[in-house]
Amino acid sequence: MPPTSRPLRKLGFLTIGLFDEADPRRGHESTLEIIELGERLGFDSAWLRHRHLQYGISSPVAVLAAASQRTRRIELGTAVIPLGWENPLRLAEDLATVDILSGGRVNPGVSVGPPMHYDRVKEALYPDTADAEDFGYERVRRLLDFVRGKPVTDFSGAEAFEVFSDRVQPHSPGLGSRMWYGGGSLRSAQWAGEHGMNFLTSSVVKAEGPEDAERSPGFAEIQLSHIRAFRARHPDGENARVSQGLVVIPTDSATPEQRAKYEEYVAKRTPRTTAPQGPARLLFAPDLVGTSEEIAERLHAHAAFREVDEVAFALPFTFGHEDYVQILTDIATRLGPALGWRPGV
User: Fold this and answer.
1) 13-55 tens-digit pLDDT
2) DSSP 3-state assignment of 87?
3) Is residue 36 within 8 Å of residue 76, measured between CB atoms?
4) Is 31:17 a contact under the CB 8 Å cutoff?
5) Fewer Cβ close by (within 10 Å): the C or N end of the chain?
């Protein structure tokens, strides 16, 4: 088994927070209970996905605000907020507020690009400015500036009985260093590094380069190139933070029925991992299912995993609450230790 070049220092998990349209509260409560369980198990971080006009969490910042009052130690992140749906100034206020309430535990992850199905939602989202909106990196830069305390206006001071600030309030001084960019391309990795962000790399990357190359690189090689490009551009160099988010499903304590369900889930998703998908040539990592010992061996052989010391393993989208309890318990008590991790206290 090849050794890891970096001991696993931080162990996190990522959930989509699905709910039933007929009973949305139960689904949101389930997500909060999973985060509480994560803290009890010693996980270092819990991350929420973001979904609009679907049956998953549409407002992760609001859910993290609730989670901040039920936990005391675990870091709380978003992976990721698509900024095409957001006003960076308002989002900066929300993030800073929740960070203050959490005692400095928020790790906002963001990404750029037009909102999904933009032609179908733009009249509702940006009825007057749809064709003028900028969905590129400038939107992230604005958010970074606001979070980091740069002036928003040239006006400050007293006006009658009210006092105004020229920067976002509340200001949370440490939040700017905990901003993450979720990227799957070489340019995204470079941009995040150049702007001093942390880097979230998931189970999806872009297969860039000529399609007819004699030997196209595999997922792990592409992801490794992104990590190294990010650190090469980051002021902190090799110490710049990177978190990897593969799908792992340990089966150590699973029932036979759970194992069968997990293996069926992975089998259905495996065909998409054999070649780049769609016009964007997206390449998906295989889901890892098996005992913790088996998964640890595969991770130790993964070139990109050997380059990181933080992970946020993604929970499968469609499983039930009891499945997530079993998976998280196995990750914390068996897989994490097999990777050299020790639980937080």
Assistant:
1) 999 999 999 999 999 999 999 999 999 999 999 999 999 999 9
2) coil
3) no
4) yes
5) C
Q: Which two tokens stand for residue 77?
A: 């992140």
Which residues, 6 or more positions from 197, have their beta carbon under 8 angstroms from its beta carbon?
A: 140, 144, 179, 180, 181
Alpha carbon distance 312, 297 (integer Å): 18
Q: Does domain 10-156+163-338 have CATH number 3.30.450.150?
A: no
Taking the mean position of all CA atoms in its chain, how far away is CA 128?
A: 31
pLDDT tens digits, residue range 81-131? 999 999 999 999 999 999 999 999 999 999 999 999 999 999 999 999 999
Number of helices (H) and strands (E) in the chain: give both, helices first. 11, 14
Determine the 3-state secondary structure of 198 from DSSP.
Answer: strand
Residues of the chain under the 50 pLDDT cut: 1-2, 4
Strand 282-284 relative to strand 204-206: parallel, antiparallel, unpaired? antiparallel
Strands 157-159 and 162-164 come out as antiparallel
Closest by Cα among 185, 327, 190 to 266: 327
SS (H, E, C) 254-285: CCHHHHHHHHHHHHHHHHHHCCCECCCCEEEC
Per DSSP, 131 falls in state T
- Is there a cis peptide before residue 108, judged by omega within 30 degrees of 0? no
Q: Taking the alpha carbons of 126, 131, 133, 135 in that order, is the dihedral positive or negative?
A: positive
- In the Cβ-directed half-sphere of 95, how many Cα atoms lie within 13 Å? 32
Residue 213, helix vs strand vs coil? coil
Task: Report the alpha-carbon angle 87-165-88, nearest 5.
Answer: 10
Phi, psi of 236 (to 5 degrees): -85, 0
pTM for the model stands at 0.96
